[in-house]
Amino acid sequence: MTSCEAIVYSKTLTEDFHLITVPRSFSSEDIKWIRSRIDECMVNFVDKRSRKPIFEIFENEKYYIVGVTVTAQDLKDCSLEDIGISDEQTKDVQGRPIYGFFAYVLEKNRGKINNRSTHNSLRACLRSLG
């Protein structure tokens, strides 16, 4: 794994469809762990629905995860320029919002954490999340 890789997860509220991309180095156990964390994020987001993205930071013995839970509409609305996406494209065919979790993964380097390096990497990830 490089120093910082992406996780992308998207779904409709009723889960007619979902998509997840994770780093290639993730094992099936890693995927199971991240799916459970993302599911928690999605439930919290839908329950609290404050119309604001929710930022998340969590970790296990191998990784740090820095991410944000949003709707496709939220992403469109916060764009600084016209990206050519209609409101209809932020919903599924039934008109339900499409939800997403977008994150960066930082590997802990087998328990030998360089605090300065990790801190700098986390700051860079947070800056890129906006």
List keywords for this structure.
3 helices; 130 residues; alpha+beta; globular
Question: Can you describe this structure?
Answer:
The chain has 130 residues and is α+β, with helices and mostly antiparallel strands. The chain has helices spanning 28-48, 72-77, 115-129, and strands spanning 5-12, 18-21, 54-59, 63-71, 98-107. It has one domain (5-129). The protein contains three helices and five strands, in the order ββαββαβα. It starts with a strand and ends with a helix. The model has no long low-confidence stretch (mean pLDDT 79).
Low-confidence stretches: none
Structurally, the number of domains stands at 1
Q: Helix coverage percent of residues?
A: 25-40%
> How far do the termini sit from each other?
23 Å
Strand line-up in the sheet with most strands: 2-1-5-4-3
How much beta, percentage-wise? Answer: 25-35%
Q: Could you give a short account of the major beta sheet?
A: 5 strands, antiparallel
pLDDT averaged over residues: 79
Number of helices: 3
Q: What is the approximate shape?
A: globular
Order of helices and strands: EEHEEHEH
Give the number of DSSP strands. Answer: 5
- Radius of gyration (Å): 16 Å
Could you give the topology of this structure?
Blueprint: E1 5-12, E2 18-21, H1 28-48, E3 54-59, E4 63-71, H2 72-77, E5 98-107, H3 115-129
Antiparallel strand pairs: 1-2, 1-5, 3-4, 4-5
